[in-house]
Amino acid sequence: MNIFVCIKQVPGTNKVQVDEATGVLKRDGVVSKMNPYDLYALETALRLREAHGGKVTVGTMGPPQAQAVVREAYMMGADEGYVFSDRRLGGADVLATSYTLSQAIQSVGDFDLILCGKQTTDGDTAQVGPAIAEYLGIPHAAWVSKLTVSGDGVDAEQQLQDVIETVHMPFPCLVTVEQDICMPRLPSLKTAKEIGDKPIHIQGLDSFLDTDETHYGLTGSATQVERIFPPVSDTVHEQWSGEGCAAKLCDQLKKWKFV
Length: 259
What we know:
The protein is of the alpha/beta class. The chain has one domain: HUPs (Rossmann fold, 3-Layer(aba) Sandwich), CATH 3.40.50. Helix content is 27%, strand content 24%. It is built from six helices and eleven strands. A nine-stranded mixed beta sheet has the order 9-8-7-10-6-1-4-5-11, sandwiched between helices. The relative contact order is 0.18.
């Protein structure tokens, strides 16, 4: 089974500045990590490979420093990794990001199964995975909490709002997974030593089937940020010390009519 896993490097903190002109996160110098939901997708892929054989390839769209999450995926057991990095891809909205990844995946090879985390912690749209599948013209299922190989495809158990639905999809197909599908393994120090300087493939827009720059990045985005600004903080803090703090607190709570 040939499996591709979409992973992403996201900020490791919620204190991230935003470029007010473009509405894009300023990622330079910010501590980053692999998107937590993508860990579940990667673990699912590794377990399917262990059970049925095959190969697990990971890919991420981002700046060159996104190689760090590919290296982490190698330490967990991924076979091959790609970073799709090109300044012309920057500033993409959900639509342009999905199209970019669909082109990137096709440039790598043919896959039986594409796995994505349910959503990313820096976007929370949960739309990229299904949109990739639509661009590729393949069946897909979202919010999947259980996945099994069945014949020429997979059975996916979806956690919908009021019901649990099981669907069968033939290969090739795409699945976005919930966090309760499995428990991700920790990166292995033993594996880290074994992989050494295992190469990470860097590809740009010129490697895609569609090389029209207007279909990518800010120019290829259907939505634009009109205005963005940091929230205003009007919180007032008081610090008390010494004797009588309990009485002061009681008086303050009465003043606020909490008691």
